[in-house]
Amino acid sequence: MPDTEWPIIPVALPADSRVSTIYRQPFLADAYTLRLPAGTSDDPEQLARLMFSQQAPWVNRLMRLRDVVVSLFGLKTTSELVNADDARIAFFKIYERRAHEIILGENDKHLDFRLSVLCREVDGAPQVVVSTVVHCHNLLGRNYIRLIAPFHRMVVRSDLRRAAQAGWPMAA
User: By its UniProt entry, which InterPro entries does this protein fall under (predicted)?
Assistant: First the structure.
């Protein structure tokens, strides 16, 4: 299936998403949507698990580099997050489950972030919307986000594209 069959479109934070109200003035807020094939599961947890299990090798290399750098500042590494004693998808903590949305994220000393995977229909067509909001606590958090924002956007698009290429799970 060529890339044109699953265009990933930047959109405003969905008003019906919990992440749109989590932080009063997020330092970073973005959202991307992708049309899903008819009959795709509308279970956001199932879609999130697929998305974050299909990461490209370059994303894994980038995360290893990130871990080396952030450990110098005493920030949480992905291995610390993966091994935490709470419910997670990949290294993201599950904060909230709703019928058509799951909220993931993490809190650290430099920033807090939340990521939403929202399933919805627009004009009768199923969509998934991945939204991210970030609240920075200090200068380290703001500089960190300035540095990683372009990579974050590439990773989100890559995760959506790879999940589409792998094939979205069908509804039961």
Answer: DUF2867 (IPR021295)
Domain residue ranges in the chain: 3-166
Closest residue by Cα to residue 130 from 46, 21, 56, 51: 51
- Would you say 13 and 22 are in contact if contact means Cβ atoms under 8 Å apart? no
**Cβ 62 vs Cβ 150: under 8 Å:** no
Distance of CA 118 to the CA centre of its chain: 10
pLDDT digit string, tens, across residues 25-45: 999 999 999 999 999 999 999
**Cβ(55)–Cβ(159) below 8 Å:** yes
Cα separation, 163 vs 37, whole angstroms: 12
Q: Show the tokens assigned to 126.
A: 């199923």
Q: Which two tokens stand for residue 164?
A: 């589409």
Expressed in percent and rounded to 5, the helix, strand and coil fractions of the chain are: 40, 30, 30
Collapsing DSSP to helix, strand or coil, 65 comes out as helix
pTM attached to this predicted model:
0.90
pLDDT of residue 5: 65
The CA distance from 72 to 169, in Å, is 39
Q: Which residues make beta-bridge pairs with 112?
A: 107, 135
Longest dimension (CA), the chain: 49
CATH number for the region 3-166 comes to 3.30.530
